[in-house]
Specification:
Layout (H helix, E strand, L loop, with lengths): L7 H4 L3 E5 L4 H12 L3 E6 L2 H11 L3 E5 L5 H14 L5 E4 L15 H25 L6 E6 L3 H4 L6 H21 L3 E8 L8 H4 L2 H9 L9 H12 L10 E4 L4
Helix pairs in contact: 2-10, 4-5, 5-7
The protein binds nicotinamide-adenine-dinucleotide (NAD).
Nicotinamide-adenine-dinucleotide binds next to helix 2 and strand 2.
């Protein structure tokens, strides 16, 4: 069964910023919204993927190499989005990294800072820029990417990652209060999803089988399945939902 298409009547005149939108979940969200007629700004570090997006979709997408952990770069790029595409209506705070596998004892200050900056501080920088460059349209919304690692603690060796995802859940609830009633703010908490961030898991069929076994739906998820939930939370189909962190995890 194919997923319902995103609401084209709604998204046709919308400007959406997707961070980390060149691959994985962000890329799947980007493609669904482009298909629905939205104007997209995509920020990422993967220049090859950004170039391919620009070639495929032309002027409908503004692709930029932006490191979301760099506040000055975020501020400059957000001003450019507003001037080139128009005021920003929606944000998907999606860019994220797992970081090097390290226990709390091994974790050095530089690696801790990198994971905090990319996964968490970026959401502050991007959301703040959104507030300065947003439209006055009704039904604006933000979706962030938490993880079920916020409550499971993730795999041993990803303590910094799990901690940032726990904070993303708190950030979502707090920002939803700040921006209500004009802007809804929600987050997704995916389980294990088949994207490059999980390359080490997906390289090992035994690990895939072991992980699938503890998931009630007995399989890992796809980027498209997470993107469907993101598009739903962005759209007026979820108009009375704000401050929610929604698991997309096959029941885990
Ligand atoms: N895949 C999963 O199993 C899973 C589970 C739970 C949560 N998530 C979250 O979903 C989000 C998307 O992850 P994904 O699975 O699509 O991974 P991915 O690695 O496929 O995509 C992440 C994208 O973010 C970009 N990125 C990384 N650092 C950046 C930076 N500093 N500035 C700009 N862009 C940057 C990468 O280049 C990449 O294109 C992440 O926040 C991740 O933590 C993923």
């Amino acid at each position: 069964m194919t997923a319902p298409a995103a609401d084209t009547a709604f998204f046709r005149d919308r400007v959406v910023l997707v961070t980390g939108g060149a691959s994985g979940i962000g890329r799947a969200v980007t493609e669904k919204l482009l298909a629905a007629g939205a104007k997209l700004a995509v920020w990422d570090l993967r220049d090859d993927r950004l170039a391919e997006l620009a070639r495929t979709y032309g002027a409908q997408v503004l692709t930029r190499h932006v490191d979301v952990s760099d506040k000055a770069a975020v501020d400059t790029a957000a001003a450019e989005v507003a001037s080139r595409l128009g005021p920003i209506d929606h944000v998907v705070n999606n860019a994220g990294i797992i970081g090097r596998r390290m226990t709390v004892r091994e974790l050095d200050a530089a690696e801790l800072e990198r994971v905090l900056a990319v996964n968490l501080k970026s959401a502050f920088y991007v959301s703040s820029a959104f507030c300065r460059h947003t439209s006055d349209k009704p039904q604006r919304s933000i979706v962030g990417l938490s993880s079920i690692a916020a409550r499971t603690g993730g795999m041993v060796g990803s303590i910094a990652y799990a901690t940032t995802k726990g904070a993303m859940s708190s950030f979502t609830v707090a920002l939803a209060k700040e921006l209500a009633p004009a802007v809804r703010v929600n987050a997704l908490a995916p389980g294990v999803i088949d994207t490059e961030i999980q390359n080490d898991v997906f390289a090992d069929p035994k690990q895939i089988a072991a992980m699938a076994d503890v998931i009630p739906l007995k399989r890992l998820g796809t980027a498209a399945e997470v993107a469907d939930a993101a598009v739903w939370l962005l759209s007026p189909a979820s108009a009375y939902i704000t401050g929610v962190v929604l698991d997309v995890s096959g029941g885990r």
